[in-house]
Design brief:
Helix content is 36%, strand content 19%. By secondary structure, the protein is of the alpha+beta class. A hairpin with a 6-residue loop joins β2 and β3. It is globular, with a radius of gyration of 20 Å.
Length: 280
């Protein structure tokens, strides 16, 4: 994948999470210095699990909305923020992400995507799931470099990263549990490698709140690219199916049945292979 850098404002500052609103306004003034503060509307978003998110638009142009995201304290332990910015730029280059305006030490400012997040009901609607498959196929078709194709799949990279966070390097860890968990990851790696699922550029976190549906434009968009990277093509699809069960109140009876999966996959493969959707 090419690493073409867009002209993004980079600011060496940390926004205080205790005064997040004031800090977000300061970032906005750097991105939109011509906006007068009296005519700016602020919306606080609450869907983020670990971050604080603010949306701003000027009353004279509601179509130009700027999001300012302030990362949650401690999230850098398990999230690679440098990789996230690279992913953002790669995805935008291939029309899979909005415009990134500004990078500051503990957050980002970027273009707002109009629409609503999916629900456990809407993700099953035929119009919606076909659009999700189309958007996923577009992301999976982003060209990979030779180095990318030789890299370790995100599945194992993230598993080992999270295990290291949980158990650490201290002798106080539950050695039996630690050994068992690492062993399971190794077994999983052996089994999945044998399947020879293609490596593609994947999102790796397609929970319902990370998928935006714009009914007027008949389009879906993916947001939040902290975990994006090279991974098994099937892993992104399988993860998305798991997310049908929801997050706050998980109900695995909502996991798609075989008939739904086959219908979803036929649509996805038609988009991935650029063939007609007739009878799919």
């Amino acid at each position: 994948m090419s690493r073409i850098q867009n002209p993004v404002l980079k600011v060496n500052t940390i926004v205080d999470t205790e005064n997040a609103t004031d800090g977000a306004f300061k970032i906005l003034k750097l991105v939109r210095p011509e906006w007068d503060i009296e005519n700016i509307t602020l919306k606080v978003f609450s869907n983020g699990i670990t971050n604080k998110m603010f949306g701003f638009h000027h009353l004279e142009n509601k179509d130009d909305t700027v999001l300012v995201r302030i990362n949650g304290n401690g999230t850098e332990i398990f999230l690679d923020r440098k990789a996230e910015v690279e992913n953002f730029e790669i995805l935008h280059e291939h029309n899979c992400a909005p415009i990134l305006y500004c990078i500051f030490n503990n957050g980002l400012a970027y273009q707002f995507i109009k629409g609503v997040t999916l629900t456990t009901e809407s993700v099953r609607q035929e119009t919606v799931f076909r659009l999700v498959g189309k958007e996923m196929a577009k992301m999976h078709k982003i060209p990979l470099s030779a180095a990318d194709r030789a890299s370790e799949p995100q599945t194992f990279k993230l598993c080992r990263k999270f295990l290291k966070i949980v158990f650490g390097e201290t002798e106080n860890s539950d050695l039996k549990l630690k050994t068992m968990m690492y062993s399971e990851v190794e077994q999983l790696e052996e089994l999945l490698n044998a399947l020879h699922s293609p490596l593609v550029f994947t999102h790796n976190d397609l929970l319902l709140h990370n998928i935006i549906y714009n009914k007027d434009q008949e389009k879906v968009s993916f947001i939040d690219y902290e975990y994006a990277g090279v991974n098994y093509q099937a892993a992104d699809i399988g993860n998305h199916f798991c997310e049908f069960a929801g997050v706050e109140e998980v109900d695995y009876s909502l996991y798609p049945d075989r008939d739904f999966q086959l219908k979803w996959l036929r649509n996805y493969l038609a988009c991935f292979r650029d063939v007609a959707l007739t009878d799919v």
